[in-house]
Amino acid sequence: MANAGRLVVCGTPIGNLEDLTFRVAGALKGAQMVLAEDTRRARQLLSHLGVRVKVLSFNEHNAASRLAQVMDLLEAGLVVALVSDAGMPCISDPGAVLVERCHVLGIPVTVLPGPSAVTTALAWSGLTVREFTFAGFPPRKSGERRRFFRKLWEEGRVAVVFEAVHRVDKTLEDLGTELGPLPVIIAREMTKVHEEVLRGTPAELVLQLRGKERQRGEFTIILDLRRKKEHRL
Predict the structure, then answer these.
(1) In the predicted model, is pLDDT for residue 40 greater than 90?
(2) Any bridge partners for residue 10, and if so which?
(3) How far is CA 9 from CA 47, 117, 164, in A?
(4) In terms of DSSP bridges, do strands 132-134 and 33-36 run parallel, antiparallel, or are they unpaired?
(5) How confident is the model at residue 92 (pLDDT cuts 50, 70, 90)?
(6) Cα-based angle 107, 108, 111 (whole degrees, multiple of 5)
(7) I need a labelling partner for 104 at 20 to 30 A (CA). Which of 38, 127, 191, 207 fits?
(8) Residue 217: its pLDDT value, please?
(9) Domain 6-112 sits in which CATH superfamily?
């Protein structure tokens, strides 16, 4: 496509704005449009850089209806930057649909790597990891969530999942009910002032979290499912 623009997928900080790379900063300054999962967070980042550019929401609620509009902009020759709430877009994120569409239509895509909550938490965990499963967010319903954890157990790897602050207690309770007192690691507020990593069984972690005030954001949960003989089947 001769006059097509370009999609630039930008990895952004997971907490600390100083983790933004020079390449991503340059791409955001040069973009003619920024697509954001959360426009409020994107504007905070752009303000930090002193960048004024139009920001358009592109998230799980409107990606299907907004896709044609974005493709029109790219086909008209605009350079469009894609950012997620935090970390790398397109991983457990609706941006993948846009990237795939660009590939189909021959529109150039550039990916600028950045921080990842998954790999940051794994590095922080202290586990020796050569392979792992990233499973995104567990289902919201208890029965489906328990089946979700059973499936991960059967794979027998280190598994990484995300969970929202208002569901983490119930998720840990279902995890403990289904798989027993297996070792779990939780990373929260990574790269921020109050970052911390918590260790324990699901029941122990529920008690630890209930004793903390003003919990925010998402939790990255690491399950070490390799030691099957130590836990019940």
Answers:
(1) yes
(2) 112
(3) 19, 17, 24
(4) unpaired
(5) confident
(6) 135
(7) 38
(8) 75
(9) Tetrapyrrole methylase, N-terminal domain (3.40.1010.10)
Q: Which is nearest to 172 in space by CA: 147, 196, 197, 207?
A: 207
Q: Is the pLDDT confidence value at 231 over 60?
A: no
Q: Over the chain, what is the mean pLDDT?
A: 92
**pLDDT score recorded for residue 116:** 94
CATH 3.40.1010.10 domain position(s) in the chain: 6-112
Q: What is the 3-state secondary structure (H, E, C) of 48-89?
A: HHCCCCCEEECCCCCHHHHHHHHHHHHHCCCEEEEECCCECC
Query: What share of the chain has pLDDT > 90, as a percent?
Result: 87
Provide the residue type at 43 as one letter: R
Question: What sign does the dihedral 82-164-139-230 (CA atoms) show?
Answer: positive
Mapped onto helix, strand or coil, the DSSP state of residue 218 is strand
Measured CA to CA, the distance from residue 53 to residue 47 in angstroms comes to: 10
Average pLDDT rounded to a whole number, residues 137-155: 97
Residue 50 is which amino acid? G
3-state secondary structure of 133: strand
pLDDT tens digits, 20-37: 999 999 999 999 999 999
Give the type of residue at 36. A
CB-CB contact of 175 with 144 (8 Å) = no
Residues of the chain with CATH 3.30.950.10: 117-230
Asked whether 20 and 124 are in contact (CB, 8 A), the reply is: no
The C-alpha angle with vertex 201 and arms to 199 and 203, in degrees rounded to 5, equals: 120
Three-state secondary structure call for residue 92: coil
- Cβ(14)–Cβ(190) below 8 Å: yes
